[in-house]
Amino acid sequence: MSTNELPSTSGDDDVRATTYLLAQKYLELLQKQDWDAWIQLWSDDAILEFPYAPAGTPNIYKGKTNILRYMSATTEGIAVDGVTSLTIHPQLDPTAVVVELHIAGHLLKNGATYEQKYVTFFQFENEQIVRYREYWNPLISIEAFGGYWKWREGARQWHGSAEGSPTPNPSDE
After folding, report:
1. Mapping DSSP to helix (H, G, I), strand (E, B) and coil, where does residue 128 land?
2. Could you give the CA distance from residue 23 to residue 164 in angstroms, rounded to a whole number?
3. Closest Cα to residue 172, out of 125, 158, 164?
4. What's residue 168's pLDDT?
5. How many CB atoms are located within 10 Å of the residue 17 CB?
6. Alpha-carbon distance 28 to 49, whole Å?
7. Rg of the chain in Å (alpha carbons)
8. What's residue 5's pLDDT?
9. Which terminus, N or C, of the chain has the lesser number of Cβ atoms within 10 Å?
10. Which residues are registered as beta bridge partners of 75?
11. Are 50 and 155 in contact (CB under 8 A)?
């Protein structure tokens, strides 16, 4: 075995392949905005996390209801015209995957160009997402909206206030 090969069992390979397919399905359903099918990929107590969310905005959403409310509302302000690059990285843990993607889009309110790069970490259990962590550059969003305060005003509609969402800090869990 070379140093580039990871030890695995055929069971791990099967789980890793399923994890890869589930991440692809997540992206396909998200792009189609098929919210009914998309939310079924999540466990009831899943966590959606944005470690670098700007100050004053939620960085954690807990549970399907809060996750769906947030994610579906973002599409009311941002139109994704296409995915310009996509790479899915299987992990040593067969239930985890990292996805890098670059989207091209625009804001619906002002037509501003919105090109964003994301790095997302998925953790699955029983073929459902239990934790999703997304890294993105908030400065790109702020610039597209025309400044911080306009971004805050536009993004306010996306942030729920139901119990379990938002949590101000991941360490508060």
Report:
1. strand
2. 24
3. 164
4. 40
5. 12
6. 20
7. 17
8. 55
9. N
10. none
11. no
Helices and strands in the chain, H and E counts: 5, 6
Strands 60-62 and 78-90: unpaired
Digitized pLDDT (tens) for each residue of the chain, 173 residues in all: 444 555 556 789 999 999 999 999 999 999 899 999 999 999 999 999 999 988 878 899 999 999 999 999 888 888 999 999 999 999 999 999 999 999 999 999 899 999 999 999 999 999 999 999 999 998 998 999 999 888 887 777 666 543 344 434 333 33
By the 8 A CB rule, do 68 and 61 touch? Answer: no
Detail the DSSP E strand segments found in 39-112. Answer: 42-49, 60-62, 78-90, 96-107
Q: Are strands 78-90 and 128-136 parallel, antiparallel or unpaired?
A: unpaired
Which residues are 90's β-sheet partners?
Answer: 97
> 């625009």: which residue's tokens?
106
- For each of the domains in the chain, give its residue range(s) and CATH number, in order of start: 10-162 (3.10.450.50)
Integer CA distances (angstroms), 120 to 1, 104, 109, 130, in order: 30, 17, 26, 13
For residue 160, what are its two tokens? 């729920």
Type of residue found at 82: G
pTM, full prediction: 0.82
- Tokens at 1, concatenated: 């075995």
